[in-house]
Amino acid sequence: MKVFISGNIAPIGLKQLEENNIEVTQWKENRQITSEELIEACQNQDGLISVGPNKINADFLNACKHLKVIALHSVGFDQVDVKEANKLDIAIGNTPGVLSGATADTAFLLMLAVSRKAFYLHKKILKGEWKNYEPTPELGIELNGKTLGIFGMGKIGLEMAKKCIGAYQMPVIYHNRSNNEEAEKAIGAKYVSFEELLAQSDVLSIHTALTDETKDKFNLDVFKQMKREAIFINTARGGIHNEHDLTEALEQGIIWGAGLDVTNPEPMSADNPLLNMENVAVLPHIGSATQETRNAMAEIIVKNILAGIKGEPLPHQVN
Ligand code: DGY
């Protein structure tokens, strides 16, 4: 059986594929594979391990309808036309559960970095601009007791909330399509309307999937309903905020700061104005990038591939 991998996965995954006699071909170039190259590479393959934002759309799926299984190197599957995959009977697998802690850590890191302007001040040192000790340099804000708003209270949102309660005793409010009773019981999170979430959050952290409903959800109108001291954090998908509007909201002081692990587009270009703002911290989509999490993801991916190739239900199947 043959599998194409469109990037790197943790070595443990490669080893397990080899142990199961799977013949692997891997994309080795230091750039994202194009759609045409991906279609070409998947001919004569039984499965695909899709690493990165490859568009698994109708065109791709129809050009590769011989594939038995596509194992995503992500929990998110917004890049997949699930309906088309269903029609063509191609199993799609993802990696839920194992990356909640690491992704919540990234959200927490960004929150703290923004609150103390850490990335901006680090850049000043690199530029040789640390000249003396200043009692009132660019001042940060404290997080203790501030209200955390979670948009999308699932596993990752709950992990983020637990960290914020543990570190800063932050009361937690959240907005979802439906109540998350587990979060309400476990940490006393309070369900609020979207408008209340915007009005009351000091830190608003996004932990929802990118869907037609959430695309561009955080736009200028929405930022205007947030507190002027609010910090906006997005570790979910860049398409959930409108980057132009976010830039304007920050430039005009409509909100205080932003921490992004996801941008739109990705990669963000080096001359993006957000990168020079004092109250902004940006990371290159590293939410789940720890050794432990990437190993766990690779192991799930292999399980998904092996099941899919045998025509069995995947342990983590999205369709
Ligand atoms: C995920 O698992 O969805 C991460 O964001 C990587 O894409």
Automatic annotation (TrEMBL):
Family of the protein in this entry: Belongs to the D-isomer specific 2-hydroxyacid dehydrogenase family.
The entry's keywords: NAD, Oxidoreductase
Any Pfam family matching the protein: 2-Hacid_dh
Gene3D superfamilies reported in the protein's UniProt record: NAD(P)-binding Rossmann-like Domain (3.40.50.720)
Protein name stated in the entry: D-glycerate dehydrogenase
Residue ranges occupied by any D-isomer specific 2-hydroxyacid dehydrogenase catalytic domain in the UniProt entry: 3-319
Record has Oxidoreductase as a keyword: yes
PROSITE patterns, alphabetized: D_2_HYDROXYACID_DH_1
Domain D-isomer specific 2-hydroxyacid dehydrogenase NAD-binding: 109-287
Lineage of origin: Bacteria, Pseudomonadati, Bacteroidota, Sphingobacteriia, Sphingobacteriales
